[in-house]
């Protein structure tokens, strides 16, 4: 069984640029959620994808967007990067939409915006 | 609105002593509660969850958690701490009102001294 993987591990961008982060879900999982974890804080929910459709969104602006592909892998895109976007971005997969399902997290992508 | 509070930024305990990491929550419906652990430069790992039933939940690595509905708490416990338990612990909540969002606490750093 393959776990959740994310790429790249680290990324440095400048303000105003655009970035794409990638996530491969755990085998058999069709739901992917993305989180932003700022330094010293808990993960903040960005959005969730289920079977290629956005299923829910947290309090993030539209410049945060995503995709889920037929193989259930996913991308997070952030446009017009701001300094406050610097954070660890975590992808988590789970099986189905049940609220009591635990999530399996990837190692994260550390984004630094200069 | 859902919320999670972890009142202690840091917990210090000697190896072999019992440990408790505190968590309180607020949800609209019935809660689904989770504990995750994060090691440096790693994603979050699932420890245990409460769905319904027995108020004492047992999880990975000898951890357990006690659900208390009247106090809206879900404290993480371990009878005998190990140095290797030193990490960042997150409490998280969802509810059964059809929500998709997982709300995480700010985290508690556990230091276990040899």
- End-to-end distance of chain B, in Å? 41 Å
Uncertain spans of chain B, ≥5 residues at pLDDT below 50?
none
Q: End-to-end span of chain A in angstroms?
A: 38 Å
Shape of chain B: globular
Give the H and E element order of chain A. EEEEEEEEEEE
Query: What is the beta-strand fraction of chain B?
Result: over 45%
Task: Tally the beta strands of chain A.
Answer: 11
Class by SSE composition of chain A: mainly beta
Q: Which protein chains make the most extensive interface, counting residues with beta carbons within 8 Å of the other chain's beta carbons?
A: A-B, 26 and 27 residues
Counting copies of identical and different chains, the oligomeric state is: heterodimer
What is the residue-averaged pLDDT of chain B?
Answer: 92
Flag low-confidence runs of chain A: none
Profile the largest sheet of chain B.
6 strands, mixed
Beta strand % of chain A: over 45%
Shape of chain A: globular
Total helical segments of chain A: 0
User: Tell me about the biggest sheet of chain A?
Assistant: 7 strands, mixed
Description:
The complex is a heterodimer of chains A (114) and B (114). Helix content of chain A is 0%, strand content 50%. Chain A is mostly beta strands and 114 residues long. In chain A, strands 2, 4, 5, 6, 9, 10 and 11 form a seven-stranded mixed beta sheet that branches. In chain A, strands 1-3-8-7 form a four-stranded antiparallel beta sheet, with no helix packed on it. The radius of gyration of chain A is 13 Å and the shape is globular. The mean pLDDT of chain A is 93. Chain B is mainly β and 114 residues long. In chain B, the strands form three sheets. In chain B, strands 2, 5, 6, 10, 11 and 12 form a six-stranded mixed beta sheet that branches. In chain B, a hairpin with a 5-residue loop joins strand 7 (56-58) and strand 8 (64-68). Chain B is globular, with a radius of gyration of 14 Å. Chain B starts with a strand and ends with a strand. The mean pLDDT of chain B is 92. Classes of the chains: A mainly beta (114), B mainly beta (114).
């Amino acid at each position: 069984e393959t776990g959740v993987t994310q790429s790249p591990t680290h990324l440095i961008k400048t303000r105003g640029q655009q970035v794409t982060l990638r996530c491969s879900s755990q085998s058999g999982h069709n739901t992917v959620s993305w989180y932003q974890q700022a330094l010293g804080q808990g993960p903040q929910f960005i959005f969730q994808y289920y079977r290629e459709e956005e299923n829910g969104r947290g309090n993030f602006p539209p410049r945060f967007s995503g995709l889920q592909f037929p193989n259930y892998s996913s991308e997070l895109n952030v446009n017009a990067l701001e300094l406050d976007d610097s954070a660890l971005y975590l992808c988590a997969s789970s099986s189905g939409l049940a609220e009591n399902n635990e999530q399996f997290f990837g190692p994260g992508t550390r984004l630094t915006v200069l | 609105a859902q919320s999670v509070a972890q009142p202690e930024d840091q917990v210090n305990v000697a190896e072999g002593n019992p440990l408790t990491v505190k968590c309180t929550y607020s949800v609209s419906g019935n809660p689904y509660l989770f504990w995750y652990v994060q090691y440096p430069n790693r994603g979050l790992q699932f420890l245990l969850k409460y769905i319904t039933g027995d108020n004492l939940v047992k999880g990975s690595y000898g951890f357990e958690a006690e659900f208390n509905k009247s106090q809206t708490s879900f404290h993480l416990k371990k009878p005998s701490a190990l140095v290797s338990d030193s990490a960042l612990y997150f409490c998280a909540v969802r509810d059964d009102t059809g929500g998709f969002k997982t709300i995480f606490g700010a985290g508690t750093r556990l230091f276990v001294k040899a």
